[in-house]
Each structure stands twice: as structure tokens, then as C-alpha cells.
Design brief:
The chain is an alpha/beta fold. It contains 19 helices and 13 strands. It folds into 2 domains: 238 residues, Rossmann fold, CATH 3.40.50; 190 residues, Ribonuclease H-like superfamily/Ribonuclease H (Nucleotidyltransferase, domain 5), CATH 3.30.420.10. The C terminus is likely disordered.
């Protein structure tokens, strides 16, 4: 059965502000502030690499003074400060990034980004497209439903109807009813004084909608609550209107217009160099002809569960690997990550392997020859992680490998991607093994080993096949 096409709609304002406040004090040598541009670009690259949508658009807000909500209620979002000047100066560069990546940037006069997103999501979900809205905004939970979910990349969490029910106590369609009664301080939506979100949810659950709550307000418990519903009935209806997204934005964009396009690589590289984002250039620079690049990282502690993450690159193609070990150390996971990457190569290859583990890189670049000469590599128990070093030596004799160290967690797109893969594999492995723990302290306290030393591995992510045109190289 053919999988449904995937459309990702990214809430541009949400991403921009998260980038701006998540990264501080970043500027070019000439003094141009670039923290928001860097954070936005980095998060966008992560989204593309991890999810590989078939269709994608970034949706922006119009100035709030121009929206229909501001016209019907001048106080709407009036409590928000103007965009900081050092952020406003970066918006043109963010748009240039999108243009260079050939990603459509959408907006509609008179409407907010939420309205545009809701209109497109419902339109294309009804046609059988799987829609993911990338945002951290709770207001958009009201559009979740068949074929539509939310993705908060900062929390790595997807939200479906069950999550909306857990968050608001009502199904997605009734979220505006709750907000109409409770109000929303972030948008300066007034609601009904004296009714908070929990009470609003209970009332909507009991009566079925905001309108029904107002119709039967004489039955609502609590004298002050009833008085507020009588006094602020019109305000409640207005608040629901303000909180309700629109599905009728006049948009002519066809799904084909949102299809992912190949980036304009020369333009991307030029812009990244102008912004002095050298760490991001590598994401758009393929390996030299005939060379396989392997990025690897391990995640673990002194003892306990561990995960590994690997990204292989050959020409324009990429592949991800990840896995879990129930009993390991951080050093072993670093070595194991490199082994798994090299094992994916069926044929002798020229390889550039990158890792943030000096233990791995120095071990294979310098120490191992001394271990061979001294006999330590073969003498039982003469060397920590001896079995893994022996495997790495065998693999190094099969391939032509250069070992390269990269500074970990310093904005390097592939190192951070491998780190995320490794941590996710470790978390999923713990859960799959029935070792449920919710805090770091609980994880560290788990009694290992509690499962066989080599259980069935967590399924490996293999998102693409590598194959040279002549069929000489295949990663599987």
C-alpha cells in the first residue's frame, strides 16, 4: 500500500522566536546579529533531515494591526511588545535562507499564520495528504484530527487528538470554546473573569459548547461564576471568535507548488558564508567523488543503557543508523557507533569517519599501532574494550579510512544529528526492554543487566539506499 504524501506546514513566527531566544550573542565579524537566522536555519535543516517531507511551506504572520481580529477587538495581542530591533533586522535574511532552499514562504493579508495553516491543513488532509503542523503554539491544537497532527521539534513531541484531550480536557474542535471562557493572556483574549482553563473545560465537557454553557448559565454552580457568565456573555462569544482559527483563507496555492525542491546550492553556500555560518556549510557540501563520509556518536554513561547514531553520506545520498545496548559504557558506545557505520559498507571503500570522541579518533590514528607492537591488542584483558578495538582494526584493513575529530555539540549539523539519534535509540531501547524510567535518576538506578546481554536490536532506521550507478557501492 502506497504511503500518503507528507505535507509539513511550519509556523514561521514560532520558529523564529524560539531561535531568537534559544541562541544569544551570535554576530558576524562585522557586527551583524545572526542568532535568530542561525537558530532558524539549524532547526529547519534538522526538520528536513529527520522527516524528509514531500511538501513543505513556512507560514508567516502579517502585522497584527492588519488582521481581522484586531479590527473586531483592538485589544487583541495589544499586550505584546514590538519585535526587538535586533530580531527585525534578521527577518530579511531568514527569508533569503528560505528562498535559497526553494521553500515557499506563505502569508495572507488580513489573516494570521494560524488561519493559513488551518486552511491548508484541512484542504489537503481531506484529499488524503498526511499533514504535520510544526509549532509550539497551543492554539493550533484545535485543528488536530484525521490526517493532521502537531509536531513540537523543541520537545520532540507529536500531538494527536488524545494529546489535545489530555491538555485541554476536550476534543480539538472544542478548544476555542474553552479559550472563549477562560481567555488567553498570551493573545490578550479576555474570556470570562473568574473562569480559568480548568473550570472552562469542565463546563464545556458538561454542557457541550460555549453556547450551551451560556444558554444554561442559570444551572452553573457558584454565584459569582453565574454572575460573570451573565455579565460577560457577549465578551465570551467574542473571545471564542478571536480564539477560533479560520478555514476559509482565500489561497490559490496548489499542493504541487509546495513540493520539496532541490536547494540552490551555490546561493545557499554564498549566503552561509556571508553570515559566517561555516558549521552549516557541510550540510550542503557533498563528500568528494568516490568518498563515503561517516558521522558517528554514542550515548551512554559509566554503565547502563546506551545508544548509537550514525549518518552515512555518499554523493547526494544519506542514510541513518541507530541502535541500543542494554549494558555498555559511553566509550564502548562511541566505538560501537563507528563499527556499525563501517559494517554498513559491503564493499571496500574510501572513508572519512568523523566523531567527537577523541578516544576513538586518537585510538585508531595513533594508539593502535603501539598496541599491536606491544601485543596488548591480542593479549586477553590487556586493553579496555579490546573486542571493539579488534573489530575496528579488521574494518580499517578492509577500507581506506581517515579518522577525523569534530568538536561535539558546537553547531555541527551531522554530529548533533548523530547525538540525537543515539539518545533517542537509548530511550526507545529502555522502553522496549520494559525498563520504564521517567527521570535521569531512575535510569541511573536501573538494575542492569535485566535482559539478555544481546537482545533483539531496536529496529534500525534506514531511510535511504546508497548505490553507486555502477552498482559497486551499496549500504544495507
Amino acid at each position: 500500500m502506497k504511503a500518503s504524501p507528507q505535507l509539513y506546514l511550519l509556523d514561521g513566527s514560532s520558529y523564529i522566536y524560539r531561535a531568537y531566544y534559544g541562541i544569544r550573542d551570535l554576530a558576524t565579524s562585522g557586527g551583524l546579529r545572526t542568532n535568530a537566522v542561525f537558530g532558524f536555519t539549524k532547526m529547519l535543516l534538522g526538520l528536513l533531515q529527520e522527516n524528509r517531507p514531500d511538501y513543505l511551506a513556512v507560514v508567516f504572520d502579517r502585522p497584527r494591526e492588519e488582521t481581522f481580529r484586531r479590527k473586531i477587538y483592538p485589544g487583541y495581542k495589544a499586550n505584546r511588545d514590538a519585535m526587538p530591533e535586533d530580531l527585525a533586522s534578521q527577518i530579511p535574511y531568514i527569508r533569503r535562507v528560505l528562498k535559497a532552499l526553494n521553500i515557499p514562504a506563505l502569508e495572507a493579508p488580513g489573516f494570521e499564520a494560524d488561519d493559513v495553516i488551518a486552511t491548508l491543513a484541512h484542504r489537503y488532509a481531506a484529499e488524503g495528504t498526511k499533514v504535520t503542523v510544526v509549532t509550539g503554539d497551543k492554539d493550533l491544537m484545535q485543528i488536530v484530527g484525521d490526517g493532521i497532527d502537531l509536531l513540537d521539534t523543541m520537545k520532540d513531541k507529536r500531538s494527536g487528538p488524545r494529546d489535545v484531550l489530555d491538555r485541554f480536557g476536550v476534543p480539538p474542535a472544542l478548544v476555542p470554546d474553552v479559550l472563549g471562557l477562560a481567555g488567553d493572556t498570551s493573545d490578550n483574549i479576555p474570556g470570562v473573569p473568574g473562569i480559568g482553563e480548568k473550570t472552562a473545560a469542565e463546563l464545556v465537557q458538561r454542557y457541550g459548547s460555549l453556547e450551551r454553557v451560556l444558554e444554561w448559565k442559570n444551572l452553573v454552580s457558584g454565584k459569582k461564576r453565574r454572575e460573570s457568565l451573565y455579565s460577560y456573555e457577549d465578551q465570551a462569544r467574542l473571545s471564542k471568535t478571536l480564539a477560533t482559527v479560520r478555514y476559509d483563507v482565500p489561497l490559490e496555492d496548489l499542493l504541487s507548488d509546495l513540493k520539496r525542491q532541490t536547494p540552490n546550492t551555490p546561493e545557499v553556500i554564498s549566503l552561509l558564508r556571508e553570515l559566517e555560518f561555516e558549521a552549516l556549510e557541510i550540510a550542503f557540501t557533498p563528500p568528494p567523488p568516490g568518498v563515503v563520509e561517516i558521522y558517528s556518536d554514542g550515548s551512554g554513561r559509566d554503565s547502563g543503557p546506551g545508544g548509537y547514531g550514525v549518518v552515512l553520506r555518499y554523493g547526494e545520498f544519506e542514510k541513518e543508523l541507530s541502535g541500543f545496548e542494554p549494558t555498555s559504557t559511553s566509550q564502548r558506545m562511541e566505538l560501537l557507533a563507528a563499527i556499525r557505520g563501517l559494517e554498513a559498507l559491503n564493499n571496500p571503500s574510501t572513508v572519512r569517519l568523523f566523531s567527537d570522541s577523541q578516544y576513538l579518533v586518537r585510538g585508531m590514528s595513533a594508539w593502535i599501532q603501539g598496541w599491536i607492537r606491544s601485543g596488548r591488542l591480542e593479549t586477553p584483558d590487556a586493553l579496555a574494550n579490546q573486542d571493539l578495538w579488534q573489530q575496528l582494526l579488521a574494518l580499517s584493513r578492509k577500507h581506506e579510512i581517515t579518522w577525523n575529530w569534530v568538536r561535539g555539540h558546537a553547531g555541527h549539523p551531522f554530529n548533533e544529528r548523530c547525538d540525537k539519534l543515539a539518545k533517542r535509540a537509548a530511550d526507545e531501547g529502555v522502553q522496549a526492554a520494559g525498563l520504564i524510567a521517567t527521570t535521569k535518576k531512575e535510569v541511573e538506578a536501573l538494575p542492569f543487566p535485566v535482559v539478555p546481554a544481546r537482545p533483539a536490536p531496536v529496529p534500525v532506521r534506514e531511510d535511504s539506499e546508497f548505490e553507486e550507478e555502477e552498482g559497486q557501492l551499496r549500504l544495507c
